[in-house]
Fold:
Amino acid sequence: MDRLIRLEPSNRVAVRVELGQRCYGELTLRNVMYTMPVAFRLQPMNKNRYMVRPQCGIISPLATLTVEITYILPPNSTLPDSFPHSDDSFLLHSVVVPGAAVKDPTSTFDSVPHDWFTTKKKQVFIDSGIKIIFVGSPILARLVTDGSMDDLREVLERSDAAWKAADSIDDHGQTLLHIAIARSRADLVQLLLEFEPNAEARSRAGQTPLEAAAAAGEALIVELLLARRVSTGRSESSAWGPLHLAAGGGHLDVMRLLLLKGADVDTLTSDGRTALHLAVEERRRDCARMLLASGARADIRGSADGDTPLHVAASMGDEHMIKLLLQKGANKDIRSRVGKTAYDVAAECGHTRLFDALRLGDSLCAAARKGELRAVHRLLENGALINGRDQHGWTALHRAGFKGRVDIVRTLLDKGVDVDARDDDGYTALHCAAESGHAEVIELLVKKGADVEARTNKGVTALQIADSLHYTGIARVLMQGGAARDAAAPLTTPASLPLGGGVGRERDSGLKKKAHRASTLRSSFDRTLPLACST
Structure:
């Protein structure tokens, strides 16, 4: 027999430390003797730091007794001198006392005579293995802050099961998860999640762990939290939700994870904006592309001011973002709650280079198409870019050339328009005028130096178009300007296909027969002109 008393559950006592509360822990002593009572005395080596109650007593055979150990924090301190393991030790004396009456050990601390543990006539056992481990919110918060993985696990395991240790908060109202996230410690987050904390718990600022991780761009932590099925929506106490925070911060990986888990792409912030609004505002083009590709509405209006993402981009003068939004179907004519279009916002902010993209480009092309010479002059004076393109990629010269508006073509040429400007398919105004059969426009363009050998993306010249449509006069003008018939093999005119975008919508009765012949040429070019050139 090497001892009379067994310590339960072990010889390490968990003392819970909490701010403003008494710091204490409990130790259970069990008499292992079957027939004899055992007297004990428990003494701290540092008597100024610990109080033990009861310090001594008698335990009946096979019975237990619980001892409370209170720790006295140093003055002006919130943490023990050493933690989580204490450097302090205790001595447990025990001795068999046959026939001794069991007294109430809580009545007095001297209920057992001291000489019982000092007389040489009796065999006194001394156990010096009792140690203290500190647990509690301040201890856990500090261990997470320091990144002490092993100590953190031990303290969590030693904590009272009735007390949700993993849900501890520090004196700033941050949960352990928030602290780990702030330090970019995915390993600590994973460890804490093993102890099943409330993964939706909010910080004092009202932010959930997922919102904190999204704001910090911690994709691995976001993935860990999403695996716990946390909500991807905005919490009631937060101004921005996870998707807003990721979009505003430019965290593409986090956005991708949230969207894959079903985050609402058009969910609103507390002030009524979407993630797309925020991505545009922060000039996060990649984020804006991802949101639009995931179904974000390019025309969605903020619930507070009625601004669309296009309004935001216009106010910032972000030409690239404006082009992206327009390509994705943004409507430039939507008005905010105060009745302003994106063009109006750009004009107010002095972003003149945006005028063409937001309004004047379309207006100039429309005026050129309709032959409205005065409108063309006025628009150019007001800042319209002479080489600007409309939403279909055509310049005003393309439109005027296709429609045969000689006065408009002459004005544009006099104003310095790029005579060889190409649309997305490589067509110049010369190609457009040749296809629609306007010899006078062709002559004017050639005289102003248009490249008669210019080819579309499919390798077609204006002369090939004229020959295939049997426009003899136009072909003669082009050859006089330097075009050569042997520049490419002659084009064939196979069976008629559906009319192209430009020709197919032509309404002028004088061009209907030419448009019909042009349709047979389309299959050779394998090209479709932009839409809406006739309205």
